[in-house]
What does this fold into?
Amino acid sequence: MVLTAAQRALVDRWVPGAELVADLSWPEALTRVWHLRSGDVDAVVKAGGEVTGHHIGREIAAGRELTGLGDGLPVLIDGSAPERVLAVRYQPGALVQDTPAEADPAVFHAAGRLLARVHGSAAAEISADYPTSRLDRLRRLLPRASTLLDPDLAARTAGAVDRIRPVPEPAVRTHGDMQPRNWLVDDAGTVRLIDFGRYALRPAYTDLVRVVHRCPPGDPRVGALLAGLGGPEPWDLPGWWAENLYQAVMTVVWATDVGSPDFAEEGRGMLRRTLDGTMVR
It folds into this structure.
């Protein structure tokens, strides 16, 4: 494992004498992820770098605030935001993305039920902070994004951003990257949520954008997810359209910057569907 001396000292304290079971890092390897085992401790250790170090702090916060809410959500062993490293209890299962489980509405329903526990783990706070900061971030991203879009799409996007008017909205604890690549399912069909590196207070609907854009119109999986979540449909909520714009633009820029052209193209597709009004509902 590639760890700094300080990170290794912490890992040795949290999972003493650990043996490496598997390297679970994604190909882009912006955050290193390992499955470690030591005696009766089965752990996942994550170490972030300059780009993703802040994700470690968010995931530590998620572990501290969600530990104890039951199976399927993270259980924190320990973590250090300054050293950008954490250890959580290992959760069994295989990633849902690109497997037959990704086509199963029951998996989406179960994921929605887990997400409802995250959203309901603290009282909602009415605030304009997130809608305002979202618009500020969109404006900062727009010059960079415009160089990555065809001229017509860039012009339409700029016009759409100019029409956004932030209003106060309820904010709850959110996963932040809710999609099948961050869900596990085991042989018994139990679903679990992982990768809380974008955990933060936001409107609840922000956790639905990426899932919705991965599903075609009329897809029963969206209804299953919403039924599990038990909240209102997001389509007419004040910030839904602005959030779709933001996540699409952010995806194009971030994916380009980390060298993931397929993911950047997915962001362009999100942007076109948002501007055309063709998101599934």
User: Anything to note?
Assistant: The longest strand covers residues 31-38.
